[in-house]
Predict the 3D structure of the following.
Amino acid sequence: MSSSINQPGENQAWLDAVKWNSDGLVPVITQDFETGTVLTQAWMSREALSLTQEEARAVYWSRSRQKLWRKGEESGHQQIIKEILLDCDSDALLIRVEQIGGIACHTGRVRCFYRRLENGQWVTSDPVIKDPEKIYKK
Amino acid sequence: MSSSINQPGENQAWLDAVKWNSDGLVPVITQDFETGTVLTQAWMSREALSLTQEEARAVYWSRSRQKLWRKGEESGHQQIIKEILLDCDSDALLIRVEQIGGIACHTGRVRCFYRRLENGQWVTSDPVIKDPEKIYKK
């Protein structure tokens, strides 16, 4: 499956259309399909994007771990793909998803953007929905 | 004004909290405050973010032109800041804005994410609201 991803071919033209950066990655914005909430910002490699389309769930490239990251593989908080969009410069993606469990952030919050700038300070604006220790407990 | 931005100081702690990448930039997601539409993905330098806060309108760093880019400086399509949010890893920003003129994209569309993946092809899903030649005509 993944061995065919980097082969040029008729069916891969949509992957060729993406402008990958010097690390072979593209920034991805993940938005809740129903609420419109911007959940997170992550990165995809060519293989990650191809798998995202194939499996209809978000597969990112983890820059910290330097490997494919099937969102929800540990937490169960998978992101089911509803729509994949490309921007005008072909260098950013927007995926609109169904967020399983209603929690996108590893801190146990709905979204990763939970700090708001207020009077020159980052103030935590969103509550923790579920204790991360319970999310990641095996 | 901008000369003070790179000086360490009590009031700049919120800028220090952002994890700037090796180019000194951070990815920024821009969302329409009223509709929730994700308009664009762009980049900010430390100075751009400081000016964005100061002027309450989106100021980006243009990677192609390698200079500060006051969104709307030519088109008039400014983005008025309603909210600035930072993510859990401190390496991405979400700004929620009022989009002046209702057009964020240089192609004359509401948003830059106007191509949707359908059956292995990028299909243009959004109409042009205003001819770009009329937008950028002096």
Q: What stands out?
A: The interface with chain A takes residues 11, 13-14, 17, 27, 29, 31, 35-38, 40-41, 53, 83-89, 92, 94, 105-107, 109, 112-117, 120-122, 125 of chain B (CB under 8 Å). The mean pLDDT of chain B is 92. Strands of chain B lie at 25-32, 38-45, 59-62, 67-70, 79-86, 93-99, 115-118, 121-124. The first strand of chain B starts at residue 25 and ends at 32.
